[in-house]
Design brief:
The protein is of the alpha/beta class. The chain has one domain: 3-Layer(aba) Sandwich (Rossmann fold), CATH 3.40.50.300. It is about 45% helix and about 20% strand. It is built from seven helices and nine strands. The chain has a five-stranded parallel beta sheet, with helices on both faces. Strands 4-3-6-5 form a four-stranded mixed beta sheet. Helix 1 packs across helix 7. The N and C termini lie close together (about 10 Å).
Length: about 180
Amino acid sequence: MSRLTVLAGPTAVGKGTVVRALRQACPNLWISVSATTRRPRPGEIDGVDYFFVSNDEFTRMIGDGALLEWATVHGINRYGTPRGPVVDHLDRGIPVVLEIDLQGARQVREAMPEAQFVFLAPPSWDELVRRLVGRGTEDAAERRRRLATAREEMAAEAEFDAVIINDTVEHAASELERLVEATR
């Protein structure tokens, strides 16, 4: 059985970008698709980037035990990892990467302590702020919420097995690939 790799880090650190680069470099691994109650950002595709679900559907998934982890993020939207596909891919020996938030990573640690936990960190706080503002997908109030959460997330770095500094996408994806390959 392959070992699960959990990638977490603060908002705007580039988790999605690094995972997309990793997927191109390692097409044989499986990247879990999370469910969320937030609205899609421009260009996001349901079932590819996320499963965009209603609050009622998300609540049903929690009640059915269909989520490996779930959390309310930034005090507004819920995100979670569907359990079945993760377990199925691991059982088939296919490496799995979860791209999730800190709350979710803590839940996965409880459920699957044998997983590898990787923290993606920005080169600096100022760079994290620049990235969040630069992507232009959140208004000022949402940016303030996300940055407050990011400070808490940055303080949890020591909870992880490995830390990757996302100074460049290529470097971060290469380091993540090395860690994933080491678990096989």
